[in-house]
Amino acid sequence: MNRPFYILSIDGGGFRGLFAAHLLKRIEEEWNFDWRDRLGLFAGTSTGAILAAGLACGLSAKRLAQLYSTLGQSVFSRRFRSRLDILKLCTSKYSSARLGRELERVFGEVTLGEVEVPLILPSVDIGNGVVHVLKSRYHDGFIRDPDVRVSDAVLASSSAPTYFDPHVLEGTYQLVDGGLWANNPSLVAVIDAQYRLGVDLADVRVLSIGTGKGKALYPQGGGGLATRVARRLSGWGLATRWQRSRLIDLIFNLQSDTAHNMLCLLFGENPNDPRRVLRLTFESDRPLPLDTVSSGPDWIARADHTFTHEATRIERFLSLED
């Protein structure tokens, strides 16, 4: 067997990306881990795109974790027009311009063609109704994206429907969050490593980091009389309080679980106990909104808890034992 080919895959999840960022920070500090030296490919969707692209560009996990305090204060602040009842029906919840400015501050003018390691950032081209995978130039056949700025690629992958406006790239592609089809980009990354880089599937190892999964999405009971009546009147109507944000969460959760299960089956392994995929995430009995900045301390605590209980497995999986 050849030396293991390690892939880092990071899910989308809005501000819950702080969980993944802090977990990466703990790994980096505990073992003085050099991400670009030890890993063969980086993949991230939405908030995971920020982290994967940052590490691929040589930023430390510590700096990326610190970035989330800025993102929380600046990006997840409701703009005035989205607070007005009549206008919230026709506007995104948050300003894409704010997010774009923060990403430009982090990545500057660096382009995908200048990224020295394989990087995959899934998005969706809603104008043509197709997937749109932004990649660094790790294959001679990649001629579309080399001049695309990393900040633009990350913004496209992070533009969650209803939360942010679509990002128009190069005046041509109208792109939104890749979480609609690859919220967990691990399967995409593994297939590309095998197909584009010629990596033997038996040599692939995937460190797959999630951002949490809330179970309580659409409970059968609960809610006041008005809520129950509204649901009976119209399942997806505006008055039902089904909440569009919960629909996005449901789509992202389903995609992440499906990608993990399919990847493990591709490896011929049990999704509940795989050997070649280390999945690090958490579950909650309550909803986990993408934009609850006040929960930041909770995500850090979750990451610390996960690292404490999984440190031995992480060390063995990444072959870090002395």
Essential attributes:
alpha/beta; eight-stranded mixed sheet; 322 residues; single chain; two-stranded parallel sheet
List the helices and strands and how they pair.
Layout: E1 5-10, H1 17-31, H2 35-38, E2 41-44, H3 47-56, H4 61-74, H5 80-83, H6 96-107, E3 119-125, E4 130-135, H7 150-158, E5 167-169, E6 173-177, H8 179-182, H9 186-195, E7 204-209, E8 213-214, H10 225-233, H11 244-266, E9 277-280, E10 283-284, H12 296-317
Parallel strand pairs: 1-2, 1-7, 2-3, 7-9, 8-10
Antiparallel strand pairs: 3-4, 3-6, 5-6
Helix pairs in contact: 1-4, 1-12, 3-7, 6-7
Short characterization:
With 322 residues, this protein is of the alpha/beta class. It has 12 helices and 10 strands.
Write structural notes for this entry.
This protein has 322 residues and is α/β, with parallel strands linked by helices. The chain is 42% helix and 14% strand. The protein contains twelve helices and ten strands. The chain has helices at residues 17-31, 35-38, 47-56, 61-74, 80-83, 96-107, 150-158, 179-182, 186-195, 225-233, 244-266, 296-317, and strands spanning 5-10, 41-44, 119-125, 130-135, 167-169, 173-177, 204-209, 213-214, 277-280, 283-284. Strands 1, 2, 3, 4, 5, 6, 7 and 9 form an eight-stranded mixed β-sheet that branches. A hairpin with a 4-residue loop joins strand 3 and strand 4 (130-135). The protein is globular, with a radius of gyration of 19 Å. Mean pLDDT is 89; it is low at 80-87.
